Automatic annotation (TrEMBL):
It comes from Hanseniaspora osmophila. Residues 39-173 form the SCP domain. Coiled coil: none annotated. This is Putative pathogenesis-related protein.
Length: 184
């Protein structure tokens, strides 16, 4: 099945996505401390680029605009209830987006995005399963910018991470020139 057939997915890479769990009423948002924010940006960018370089993709640059868009979503629309949720901009196909729930750090969340590699067929340039989408977005060569944000959903859920990308990935017929195997 081609990867682009399923453009919206909410059930990926988290053990919490299928559990019935209590609703968390009051999430706490990422720190507004500028030093912590810069550290988060640095870690997010490094985690992405380490994996991208392994696949021969160009390095990403940080987008404050995408980060702000992700943060606004977390503060105004997102509900900490154990489900993976995407933004309307992603659903409309305007941006690429990856989400993860239940991880302590951005590095762990980005690593979780890469787990979808096992659902991608490099030989056929197709997704075997929709869970490949976060991996293919992560390593999509034409993507230039990333911006991430997170929210703490309490001890049960831990953190919800959202990373947004431009140019978006998972474009039909463009997989062969954008998703590469690990370089030797």
């Amino acid at each position: 099945m081609p990867c682009a057939k399923t453009s919206y997915t909410t059930s990926v890479l988290t053990e919490y996505s299928t559990k019935t769990v209590p609703y968390v009423v009051a999430p706490t948002y990422a720190s507004t401390n500028i030093v912590e924010e810069l550290d988060f940006q640095k870690k997010a960018l490094k985690a992405h680029n380490v994996l991208r370089v392994k696949h021969g993709a160009q390095k990403l640059r940080w987008s404050a605009e995408l980060q702000k868009q992700a943060q606004v979503f977390l503060e105004t629309e997102f509900v900490c209830n154990g489900t993976l949720q995407h933004t309307n901009a992603f659903k409309a196909g305007e941006i690429g987006e990856s989400v993860a729930l239940g991880y302590a750090s951005i590095e762990q969340a980005v690593q979780a995005f890469s787990h979808g590699q096992k659902y991608y067929s490099f030989a056929n340039s197709t997704c075997v399963d929709k869970r490949a989408h976060q991996f293919t977005q992560l390593v999509w060569n034409n993507t230039e910018y990333v911006g991430c944000a997170y929210i703490n959903c309490g001890n049960y859920y831990n953190n919800f991470f959202i990373c947004q990308y431009t140019q978006k990935g998972n474009i039909p017929n463009e997989y062969p020139e954008n998703v590469f195997q690990v370089l030797n």
